[in-house]
Every structure is written in C-alpha cells, then in structure tokens.
Amino acid sequence: MPPDGDARFPPIDPKVWREISRESGARGPGDKADFAFIEYERAWPGQERPVRSPAPTLTEEKSCPD
Fold it and tell me: In 15-49, which positions are buried (b, 16+ CB within 10 angstroms) versus exposed (e)?
C-alpha cells in the first residue's frame, strides 16, 4: 500500500542512529495501516549514550539594573 505523494525519508542508518523508544498505535476507523512513534538518538561508538553536561543551576540571585 504506497502512500499518496512523493515525499520519502531516507532509511535510518543504525551506525548513526539508535532507537531508544517505540510506541505502537493501531489504525483508526478510516486508516489503512497501523503506525508507530519511534524516538532515536545519535549513536556514539564505544558508549551507550553520549556524556552530557548537567543543566546549569542558578546558585545566587542577581538583580538587574533598571
């Protein structure tokens, strides 16, 4: 069942992208196919996930001049 239109998304390269979550959904009454929401993150060779710095925190209040 090809979709209407000509837009195509290139195949996802598992060497570059890693699937981290998938939520499957069932077709609705007017649909012809099931679907899935898939979340990817960039794959980093040699690590499970990239090391990310924690978000900065506000340690003191500073007033702004008027």
Answer: eeeeeeeeeeeeeeeeeeeeeeeeeeeebeeeeee
| Mean pLDDT of the chain, nearest integer | 76
pLDDT tens sequence across 40-60: 998 876 665 555 555 555 555
Domain spans, the chain: 11-27+34-43
Closest CA to 38 of 56, 57, 22: 22
Q: Which two tokens stand for residue 15?
A: 């060497």
